[in-house]
Automatic annotation (TrEMBL):
Listed name of the protein: 3-deoxy-D-manno-octulosonic acid transferase
GO function terms (MF aspect): Kdo transferase activity
Lineage: Bacteria, Pseudomonadati, Bacteroidota, Bacteroidia, Marinilabiliales
Gene3D superfamilies, A to Z: 3-Deoxy-D-manno-octulosonic-acid transferase, N-terminal domain, Glycogen Phosphorylase B
A Pfam family recorded for this sequence: Glycos_transf_N
Major subcellular site: membrane
Pathway(s) it belongs to: Bacterial outer membrane biogenesis; LPS core biosynthesis
């Protein structure tokens, strides 16, 4: 029936449909989806400890803020989805506390795996879960906190929070952001258009790569700076404070050592195949999950005897071939003793932190699911990292690396140059943020 309307009527309908009806429909779908997500989390909490932590955090966060928030000093809000994003946000927080001590820091997490591990982080004044993104929660949270500046780390595009912050003219900065062509923002259709409207409310993007900047420009957004990844600054700080670990030194005993960091069962299966054919090289497993059932599973699958880190006092570590780290907080210091590092997660949702190992100028190996992690892509591109698909590839690469000291020295030089070229993102972000305002 719209075929015979006048041009101005056609234009009016087009305007109504594209500027009013579509956004309202997408907004309605989003609000419904958020509530379904919360319902699903509540059901999962009946079976999952992680979900129970999440629901408990959601129930307590707003009362916590009501009781704790003190507005005598201005507040900067830093949001991290989980532990990996925290490692990117941490150098930012610590530099703000050093250079701008007048500010308080509110640190929020969405995932229990971030909050539960870092809920006692001393550099933040307040630490809590982010209330789930309903209109009511976003309004109450922002009215309680009254942040002067907001940093979202890497990603996290919560529509209601971003919309309300924008309306209140509170600047929003996305730090260590990375974008890819396949993301919905860069596609066609009304869903993509709606998601782009969320991006348009961000004050400034600090992106990891030139490619991310070009993608933003392709949709008309030029409010970005290419700064790289703040995690490089974090791992450099880790090295400067790394601890000597006498038990690890005794275990290594001047022999070749592989450190498998944040390993999962598929990663461990490949390394066990290596162990079967190599009874000289020592291996340290630092599993991603350190709960007792997982440690016992790993011990039961090993072809040789092993020693647990928590039980190795008084043991003859020189004779042991496998050490299992059944505690958290020391992996970044253990890497300093490695000749080769294997980073877990590449046969699952994605690899863990490669930079913690590469900062010690050692070769890094991981599974095939690494393409979403720019630092791993770049390390592989410069010849300092290797991806494997099965145990045969892993055994071949490990034999080559462990037998060829000159090759390891060349890789060490590549690592040194790579890390040096990528330091300084934190200072650049804060310089621009405080000058922007």
């Amino acid at each position: 029936m719209f075929l015979n309307v006048k041009n101005e009527d056609s234009y009016s309908f087009h305007y109504f449909y594209t500027q009013i009806a579509e956004p309202k429909f997408m907004n309605f779908l989003y609000q419904i989806a958020i509530r379904f997500y919360l319902l699903a989390a509540r059901i999962s909490a009946l079976f999952s400890e992680k979900a129970r932590f999440f629901i408990r955090g959601q129930q307590t966060v707003l009362p916590y803020l009501e009781n704790k928030i003190d507005h005598q000093r201005p507040i900067i809000w830093v949001h991290c989805a989980s532990l990996g994003e925290f490692e990117q946000g941490r150098p930012l927080i610590e530099q703000i506390k050093k250079d701008h001590p007048a500010y308080q820091i509110l640190l929020t997490f969405f995932s229990p795996s971030g909050y539960e591990i870092r809920k006692n982080y001393e550099q933040a004044d307040y630490i809590c879960y982010l209330p789930i993104d309903t209109v009511k929660n976003a309004r109450r949270f922002i009215d309680l906190v009254k942040p002067e500046k907001v940093f979202f780390i890497k990603y996290e595009f919560w529509y209601n929070y971003i919309k309300l912050l924008h309306e209140k003219q509170i600047p929003i900065y996305l730090v260590s952001a990375i974008f890819r062509q396949e993301q919905l923002f860069f596609k066609t259709g009304f869903r993509a258009k709606w998601y782009r409207q969320v991006l348009q409310k961000v004050t400034h993007f600090f992106v990891q790569t030139e490619a991310s900047g070009r993608l933003l420009s392709s949709i008309g957004m030029n409010n970005y700076t290419v700064t790289g990844d703040t995690r490089f600054d974090r791992v450099a700080e880790i090295v400067s404070k790394s601890k000597q670990l006498p038990l690890i030194e005794a275990f290594k005993n001047q022999q070749k050592l592989i450190v498998a960091g944040s390993s999962w069962a598929p990663d461990e299966a490949l390394l066990i195949d290596f162990l079967i054919q190599d009874r000289q090289t020592k291996i340290i497993f630092a599993p991603h999950e350190v709960k007792e059932s997982n440690i016992q599973r790993l011990i039961g699958q090993l072809p040789v005897g092993s020693v647990r880190y928590s039980q190795c006092e008084g043991k003859d570590l020189k004779q042991a071939q496998v050490l299992i780290v059944d505690t958290i907080g020391i992996l970044s210091s253990i890497y300093r003793y490695a000749d080769v590092a294997y980073i877990g997660g590449g046969f699952g949702v994605g690899i863990h932190n490669t930079l913690e190992a590469a900062i010690y100028n050692i070769p890094v190996i991981f599974g095939p699911n690494y393409l979403r992690f720019q630092e791993a892509v770049n390390l592989k591109a410069v010849g300092a990292a290797f991806s494997v698909n099965d145990s045969a590839e892993l055994i071949s690469i490990l034999n080559e690396l462990l037998d060829d000291e000159k090759l390891r020295m060349k890789i060490a030089e590549k690592c040194r140059y790579f890390m040096a070229q990528n330091l300084g993102a934190t200072q650049q972000v804060l310089k621009e943020v405080f000058n922007i305002l």
